């Protein structure tokens, strides 16, 4: 009976999953463009260099190899960012700050619960993943991963490439980048991520049928609307510019772990 209840809960959670809408949290739409100081992401880069590996079209994280020292480093990195006031920095610094913070917290959530088959197993009994749970306090305000992505990054920058930057620790997700985001490299990283996700990682065409990552379905409006998806995709994969066939969507929630 208990087993059946858990199964039903899982099915309900999955069936009710829907992508949050972009919903600006006005407090965070402030910046100090005169501030030329840079935020260091050295600790995060160190973890990426040590544990992220490229295999085929994926970058995979060696969660099972992370040392206790590096777990402490990750925790300290997140705590250091949380003590900063991002509003005192220019917008370019803020974007890198939020993306790196999101990705670092996601990796920490997996490590805190490892081994786990999928990030969707985290969260409460009736939750589909941990995205709605408070994970960090900044400027005295509790934030969830959903807040960072859907109430800060998406509505403030209005850049569809943000969907290629934030990583949900899943094979279906655009890859975790091999470089930490900085104000200087953000545009190049976003373009590279978009190119990769618009080809082998997120788009597959066989004959008159295109299989796309579900990200293009969940966030179609960010990419110009469902009918305009291939206008966006063809910016990074010109071979798909005139595609007008059938479109299906798929997403793999399996953990992005290296064996």
TrEMBL record:
Residues 1-18 form the signal peptide. Keywords: Signal. This is DUF547 domain-containing protein. InterPro entries: DUF547 (IPR006869). Residues 88-195 form the DUF547 domain. Coiled coil: none annotated. It comes from Vibrio alfacsensis. PANTHER family: ELECTRON CARRIER/ PROTEIN DISULFIDE OXIDOREDUCTASE (PTHR46361), ELECTRON CARRIER_ PROTEIN DISULFIDE OXIDOREDUCTASE (PTHR46361:SF3).
């Amino acid at each position: 009976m208990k087993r059946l209840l858990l199964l039903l809960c899982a099915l309900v959670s999955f069936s009710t999953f829907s992508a949050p809408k972009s919903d600006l949290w006005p407090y965070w739409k402030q910046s100090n463009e005169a501030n030329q100081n840079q935020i260091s992401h050295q600790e995060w880069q160190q973890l990426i260099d040590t544990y992220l590996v490229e295999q085929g079209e994926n970058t995979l994280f060696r969660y099972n190899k992370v040392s206790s020292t590096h777990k402490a480093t990750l925790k300290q990195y997140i705590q250091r960012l949380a003590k900063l006031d991002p509003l005192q920095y220019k917008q370019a610094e803020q974007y890198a700050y939020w993306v790196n913070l999101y990705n670092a917290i996601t990796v920490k959530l997996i490590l805190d619960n490892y081994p786990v088959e999928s990030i969707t197993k985290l969260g409460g009994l009736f939750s589909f993943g941990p995205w709605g749970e408070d994970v960090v306090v900044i400027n005295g305000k509790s934030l969830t991963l959903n807040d960072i992505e859907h109430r800060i990054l998406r509505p403030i920058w209005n850049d569809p490439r943000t969907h290629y930057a934030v990583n949900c620790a899943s094979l279906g997700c655009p890859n975790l980048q091999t470089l930490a985001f900085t104000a200087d490299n953000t545009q190049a990283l976003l373009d590279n991520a978009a190119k990769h996700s618009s080809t082998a990682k997120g788009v597959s065409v066989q004959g008159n049928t295109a299989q796309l990552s579900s990200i293009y379905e969940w966030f179609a409006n960010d990419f110009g609307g469902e009918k305009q998806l291939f206008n966006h995709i063809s910016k990074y994969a010109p071979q798909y510019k005139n595609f007008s066939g059938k479109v299906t969507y798929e997403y793999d929630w399996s953990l992005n772990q290296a064996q």
